[in-house]
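Quick one: structure for this chain?
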Amino acid sequence: MLRKQDASLTAVEYFKEYSKYIAHLLSALDFNEIDRVAKRMVQTAQNGNTIYFAGNGGSAATASHFATDFSHGLVGGTGKLVKAVSLSDNMPLITAISNDYGYENVFTNQLKNLLVPGDMLVVISASGNSPNVVAAAELANTHGATTVALCGFDGGRLKDICHHVIHIETEKGEYGPVEDVHMMLDHMLASYLIAVMKESSAV
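Got it. Here's what it folds into:
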């Protein structure tokens, strides 16, 4: 658990403690599960299916970053197209769905028009309980897609319903550290896919 900054800590001491905590969370990751997710992502991309990302707030920014790194980075490194889409990016559509159908449907209403069997949905939520990402995962599970949860705290609902779970276990409310590790997972997975796709394209 990250100790909150108080009068006993200087700024430098707090920054060092924060960094040590992030290193601890990284070392505690289930790397076998990350490996399974990475291999499934490669299979999804090589089959020509789409990898969708969804999240709220800071996790929406992470979803956008994932989609950018997966599509642009892989195209730039290999010449192969990886279909990667952030469902958090189209604000006119998101506000229209929210206004007409409720915010809990902003991802499911998009997926109903897009998702096909063999696709992957990566839902990103520190709490694991955001109603719209939970609903998206439940929909994807019934449409032949692979669901992956990136979650924190106690894992929430997503931990129980997704096919694959990368859980950053923390005290509730530690959004910053969880989101930091989620961003590092983006760069881990994107760089791995780039390496694998380069190798396969060279054969």
